[in-house]
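Dear Dr. V.,

Thank you for agreeing to look over these. As mentioned in my earlier message, I'm a first-year student in the group and I'm still getting used to reading structure tokens, so any feedback on how I've presented them would be very welcome. I ran two proteins. I've put each sequence directly above its structure. The first is here:
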Amino acid sequence: MKKYAIIVAGGAGVRMGGNTPKQFMLLKDKPVLYYTLKVFLEAYTDLQIILVLPVDYTDMGQEIIDAYFDKDRIKITAGGDTRFQSVKNGLGLVEGESIVFVHDGVRCLLTKDLIYRCYQLAVETGTAIPAVVSKDSIRLITEEGNTAFDRNKVMLIQTPQTFHSKIIVPAFQIDYKDKFTDEATVAESYGMKVSLIEGEENNIKITRPVDLLIAERIIDGRR
């Protein structure tokens, strides 16, 4: 079965400060995006990457590909105004029956083990959504104020959210709704139940300057 990884790297990185989108910021002398692409390409030799970038940064993305990777395994497409549209643009390049990973370009610390586990569950059930249990106390906002909630019943969702193409491709043909914060919510609106799988604590999303420091320590620890 074919394998695709849609790497969504369309954000502007406002919380990082500066003018460079976070996916292009340097992490140990290489762009954040480099690490994300590398782990997927090494996980499966027959996997094709679809890289979704802001239209103004496609040239920068191509420079990374030319410098480090086999350009025949990576296609670039422009992102949209929403994550939904960006993923939909990427899905437009998926051909034939396949397993499709959808991953945040700035979650650069995932492991091949997580990719393998998501693939196997998606083959078995059609979906695989990595998640970790909340370590923080949770409170729900109510009309009366707020109330405590059992944190063991709260799962923090990660990527790669992984699907059989027969599910995710038609799911993205439905009309966009504001509640679509990730691919799992789109699949559910299409009428599908999603399967959760244990994520990874180190599979963090680079959104603030301190995250780059944390990522450096994690990379050093792995070496």
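The second protein is here, in the same arrangement:
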Amino acid sequence: MVETRRVQYCTATAMALLLLVFFFVTDGAYGQYPEIRTLNNTDPVFRQHQEGVNQYYQAAARNQGQPPLMVYQVKPRETDTLLSIAARFSLPYSAIASLNRLDSPEIPHTRNYLLVPSMPGLFVPATPESDLESMLVQRPSANAIPVQIDVAGSPVSFRFQPGEDFSSEERLAFLRALFRSPLLEFRVSSTYGFRRSPFTGARSFHNGVDLVAPMGANVHATRSGRVTETGYDTIYGRYVLLDHGTGYESLYGHLGSIVVDLDEQVRSGAVIGKVGNSGLSTGVHLHFEIRMNGVARDPMQLLPRTGR
């Protein structure tokens, strides 16, 4: 039985554009969405999806109005990845990732089904829950379409931005290669790499970056993680070390004070301390390091360019 239903929309203004989404009733995880059982043209629902995708690309090429948005569901196989699924559907992986609220390429084992849109674009939630979504909500939304879709059994209010893709920084965040800034505002006084020691004048390797900020400024966790070390070191002064669970660690040194406890779980952006001048320091600043499997990385290659 085929039913035509209207997606529930957030009516922010009387001029909000309404999209019609056609649903099939199935026995899948999300019963209101048509299920694609085979990712080839032997499946009539797959063919219908591909027709919708082609209609979008043709309309975009001709600068015509877009076709209605449709949402489907598919059950990933053990060998599937988000990137392979997106390729089979002729869609950028950003469309499937943002619709399913995935903030990394891994498909969670708890997701028996994934939702698949009929056109490229970004689904930006009204209430962000991850670093990636916090970046997405900052996008201009002049052409966004408000829509409500059930994701993993819960209704989510999105603004759908047709045809848009991840920016370079959003892509890095999705690939778990990007950290957020530990300070809202700062000036880099010493970069990562070899330098002349400000104390001995000898050439030595600087494992992090020195970020100048006002005394007492909040220092933020650059990604969610667990406090694995905290205390006082003769060089780093008051410091905090976070383990982010993916081989990455971040270290914050020369703090004026520490506001987290050992083994505490902290969310990305949480205040973990205050800028200070403790330890072997030439002035008020934050010494910041990022390590991957114990090896120091250049933090400035992993931080967003904004706010520098």
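From my reading of the second output: The helical segments are 44-61, 82-88, 93-99, 131-136, 168-174. The longest strand covers residues 248-258. Does that match how you would interpret it?

Kind regards,
E.
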